[in-house]
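Sequence in, structure out. First:
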Amino acid sequence: MSAYLRLGGLCAGLVLLAGCARFSDDGGFAAVQQASQQHLDKEVVWARDEAGQGAIAQRVSELLVAPLDVEAAVQLALLNNRGLQARFDELGIGEAERVQAGRLPNPGFSFGRMEKGSEVEYERGLHFNLARLIAMPMVAGIEAQRFEQLQRQTSLALLELASQTRKAWYSAVAAEEHLVYARQVQEAAEIGAELARRLAAVGNFSKLQQAQQQSFYAEAALSLLHAEQARVRSREQLSRLLGLWGEQVAFQLPERLPELTKVAEAQEDVERLAMAQRLDIQAVRLDAERLARNLGLSRTTRFINVLELGVASNRSNEEPTQRGYEISVELPLFDWSGAKVARAEAQYRQALNRAAETAINARSQVREAYLGYRVAHDIARHYRDELLPLRARIAEEQLLQYNGMFISTFDLLADARRQVQTVQGYLQAQRDFWIAKTDLDMALLGTPSFSSITPAAAATDEPAGH
């Protein structure tokens, strides 16, 4: 009976040890909610049941009632983007793996019946995988650290979605404004082309002058088509990020972008700030620590590949019942697990190199983002403070010249087109500034996806017919 008592004591201890492996109430989602609140001041919901989905649907309907400003668009994306919800589901998968790593391996039971003439022998056995039991604290710790890394990666995906949504919103609103001004240019060019046609019909305009005005009109019409295409593309990109479909894609946007800030924000020591708070750096650091522990585990268990403890009972109808226990171990005659240890060491070195690469790239990215932000602000401010006032002054003088009959109608129309083109240049510079601001904010938290920004060019003088 002593063997069974020892077995019972062992089982009781194992059950007590396994009691720590349980699911959390929130599935690890609290860390993601905290990141959203801390960095974005936004609400996030993990829709794990119909009640959660209903709450999201109701909140989405409320947000779509009014024109979407940039903050409302970000909130809508964080609630309604299905790709983000899929990332939240990865938390559920990761927690299940964490809990599984802390669960005891199931015992094995064997039963045998042997006959030899009139003699019948029964054999029963109960087996435990001691190798897995010995390694369980290490494995559970590794999985817990992996789950913490998954939480950081999920938080980073949330921040990336918010950044992409902001940039898509700025692009969509800018495209709406650009379309308005493109129509104005096209209307002015159409008036000039029609006037040139009438003057040429009565012999007061040369064919060259008429062709020039017709060329301006054709180019303006082409620019209008490009503006309409850009509007559709930008709205659809924003719709995908917001997770909208059906009648929801007819959402409204404000008529104008936010005003340019008076001065660019000064960021002291952006590299140090990025090193302290970037989630991707924290994630690779955790990965390196996890692999270091995994390396220790590989060295510990290299000689204990299969280790089982069993309690056996052997009874026959002729002999007294035999009781005892047995331990089986795999002898490392051919495979000394050197390959497994070498693999773990290579993985650890790889993790260290990737962590160093991430840190180097982070420093470079945040420097690039900060410089891009400052330059974008300078360009937009130059448009606002220099070019636009100059164009307005020129327009006033041109109107006075026209009223005094010193210039023709075509000169006045050409100047109106140049003025609108300058406004479009400022609009593009204004959009680029807000996108650069978004890239800088993201670079301080994770890897930014820099947008390809083409410099806004001021309108150049164009020939006009007289």
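Second:
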Amino acid sequence: MREPTELEKKQLARVLELTAIARQRYLDAGGDPRRCPSGRKGDDYMTDEERQESLELTRAIFAVRIIGDEVHCQGRVWKIPAVSAKQKSEIVS
């Protein structure tokens, strides 16, 4: 495994900072210190801007890219399975 670059270290520090801010908001709102919020929008205690920044930084740090019907991550590639019409109708219903 390679050592992270200086930029990656700064990006990770920012993601950790955003997470700590959100955690403090959760605790200030009366959250259980032994539990963490789900992380879903509305239960992550982040503003929309913070959530977007965190998402962009995480994608940059871990280099996850979706190109067409493939996922590219750390030199590996996965094919995204096609959803059949039958599966789509089951998902909708």
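Remark: The longest strand covers residues 64-67.
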